[in-house]
Amino acid sequence: MTGRHAVAVTGLGVRCAAGATPEALWESLVLRRSATRLHAFDAEGAVVYPACPMTDFDPCGHLAPKEVRRADRSVQLAVCAAADAVEDAGGLHAAPGRRAVVTGTGYGGVISQENGIGHPDVLYAPRLMHNAGAYWISARFGITGPSLTISTACASGTHAVGEAMQMIRAGCADVVVAGGHDSPLTPTTALAFGRSGAMVTECEEPGAASRPFDVGRRGFVLAEGAAFLVLERLDLARARGARIHATLTGYGRTSDAHHLTAPHPDGAGARACMEQALADAGTTADAVTHVNAHGTGTELNDIAEAQAITAVFGPRGVPVTAPKSVTGHGLGLAGALEAVITAWSVREGLAPPTAHLTRLDPRCELDVIHTEPRKIPDGPVISNSFAFGGHNACVVFDSPHA
């Protein structure tokens, strides 16, 4: 790690059904308060499934009415979450050319795309662009350094955070606004995932529809939202007296090269990704205090990830939590949202429980936290994202005092 700039997390911002602030999100997680409800994906009410919509979202505090009309809902969410993160950081303390933004999204402006098919207006193309969020954030905060967008399905947000860290390490930027956003709650998206068998379509108790690692799982629950972090060079953050939530110390990314949608059955790519992230952080598996699992609630993903975690840490060798039991699965948002959650866990010294886990799948030899939050000591915490396409990304956070 010699010669690399250390990276601090100085700002956090979220917009999702489980909370419009990191504090509200954390409360939902600690109390196992699910954001899932029955949701009509179309105006006629013909497509109704469990989902995690953000019903009270209002972008007007951050976007003028004209800007709202020009931006897809996913971008509106992104601008608001990024603005909160920047405010939390106390601003961007670097020259414009030393600032950067990295966004992750799986679906881009899919609401605008679906609504405009057959009758696009003049703003159709810019509203659906995957990089529209990066544009709006860079324009809002005077970011004239690197501006990138990553789309690796459900790993997009984690890849965005990891690549942002690499920018700072390499000296390409001093501060980076990094995160993910998606608003995929369209009827076509819901029907597609439902027919694939990956998403919950029927559930006697909608609030408990997302059940990672449970024998009664039925798939993931679709969610929308945005989550952003402000990352800074640690020495510069300390020099200005910034409040530091956590440090970002490691990043791994691998590919299964196995199947378009299914993970490698023995979790080989996921295992390699975790090992790479730990090596990058300069730490070992026995030092890790907590794993934030990808934990979608699909059988194939749960079992493959459990095997990978067991291979790295041993059977029940480390406390594991699965926030998607509360937040649902926001696709390109998910990894960034869980990066915020993981940084907050490090800050609080607490791992939140997994909701709705009544009977652990015996094929998952994991110590899944599921009743009350668990105290964790200072030390590295890893957050996993394992996506369709075999795209794997992991990031490691640690205490700023470590």
Automatic annotation (TrEMBL):
What PROSITE patterns does the record point to?
KS3_1, KS3_2
Residue ranges of the Ketosynthase family 3 (KS3) domain? 4-399
Instruction: Name one process (GO BP) from the record.
Output: fatty acid biosynthetic process
Tell me the GO molecular function terms.
3-oxoacyl-[acyl-carrier-protein] synthase activity
- UniProt KW Ribosomal protein keyword: no
Q: Write down the SUPFAM superfamilies for this protein, in alphabetical order.
A: Thiolase-like
UniProt keyword Acyltransferase, yes or no: yes
A Pfam entry, by short name: ketoacyl-synt
Domain of life, per the record? Bacteria
What keywords would UniProt list here?
Acyltransferase, Transferase
Which family does the record claim for this protein? Belongs to the thiolase-like superfamily. Beta-ketoacyl-ACP synthases family.
Q: Under what name is this protein listed? A: Putative Beta-ketoacyl-acyl carrier protein synthase II
